[in-house]
Amino acid sequence: MMIDSNPPLLHHFGALSSPNPPPPPSNTSSNLKCQVMEECQLPLIDLSGLNSNDQKESVACAAAICRASSEWGFFQVVNHGISPELLKKMRREQELLFQTPFERKSTCGLLNNSYRWGSPPTATSPKHFSWSEAFHIPLTKVSDESCYGEFTSLREVMTEFAAAMSKLARLLANILVENLRHQRNVIDDTCDESTCFLRLNHYPTCPISAEIFGLVPHTDSDFLTILYQDQVGGLQLMKDSKWVAVKPNQDALIVNIGDLFQAWSNDVYKSVEHKVMTNGKKERYSIAYFLCPSNDSLIGSCKEPSIYKQFTFGEYRKQVQEDVKKTGHKVGLPRFLL
C-alpha cells in the first residue's frame, strides 16, 4: 500500500466548498475563471556592485535596491553570496523532508513541532484555504539537534543556509535604513536570531483547479523576506491594481518588503500583497527567510509627521491574528493608520 506524504487537502477543501461542488479540473473549458495572467520580470539587481571599487557603481546598486523597494516592494538579486551548491543541498533536504508520510510529519514534533498544512480552523470558505504545507521554524531551533530526529543531514545544511540568509537580509535591510538617513542599529538592535524565522513550503499538485490558492493573498508581517523558490512558478503580486505573475529566475533570490518597513519608512517602502497559485501538474517548493524584530520592539516612523500610530511587533501580530480569526483574512497596516 502506498503511504501518502501529502496532507488531506482535497477532503478539507471539499468540506469548505459544501454544499457547492469543488471547481472543475483546470483542463476543462468550463473553468471560465482561468485567465491568461500577465507575466512580469521583477527588477533584477546584481549585488556584486555593492563591493565594487568604483564608488559610483556601489552607490548605484544601493539606489536600485531602494528604488525597487519603493516602486515594486519586490525585487530579485543575483551574485548574492549564497552558493548554488548550498541552495541545491537545501532543496534536496527539503524534498526529502516533505516526502515523509503525512501522519508522521503531523505528529512526531519535527523541527520544533512547526508543521502546518491547509488553513487554520478559522477558514470558513474556499477563498481562505491554502493548498500547501509548511514548517515554520524559529532560527533559535535551526541548530537544535533534538528537533531533527532521523533527519540529521538536514540540520547541518539548514544551519548553514539560515546563517547565509540572515547575513543577506541584514545587508539589504541596512541599505534601506541608511537610505533614509538612519543608523544601521535600527535593524541590529531589534532583529536577532531569537526573532527571525525560516519557512519551508511545499505546494502539492492540485487536481481540481488552477484557481485555488496555494497561499492566500497577504502581505508579510516583518521587515523583509527573502525567498528561494524553484522554477515551477505560481507566485503573483499586486502591481498597478492588478495581479501579475512573477517569472521564475533560477539564478536569483526574491526579496520583498514587509509591513514593518512600510510603517517605519512612512510608506517610502511598500509592503505589497502577494499570493501563490496552485499547479495541476507540478508540485512546488520554496523557502522563505523572515527578518523580524522582538515582540516588544516599538515600530515608530523614521520621520514626522507619522502616517501610523506607534505599535510593538507583538501588538501588530496580535491584531493580525484577531482579524484572521474574525474575518478569515489579514487586515494589517490599515488598522494602525492615524
UniProtKB/TrEMBL annotation:
Residues 192-293 form the Fe2OG dioxygenase domain. The keyword RNA-binding does not apply. Its EC number is 1.14.11.13. InterPro entries: DIOX_N, IPNS-like_FE2OG_OXY, IPNS-like_sf, Iron_ascorbate_oxido_reductase, Oxoglu/Fe-dep_dioxygenase_dom. Keywords: Dioxygenase, Iron, Metal-binding, Oxidoreductase. The keyword Cell inner membrane does not apply. GO terms for biological process: gibberellin metabolic process. Pfam families: 2OG-FeII_Oxy, DIOX_N. It catalyses: gibberellin A1 + 2-oxoglutarate + O2 = gibberellin A8 + succinate + CO2. This is gibberellin 2beta-dioxygenase. It comes from Dipteronia dyeriana.
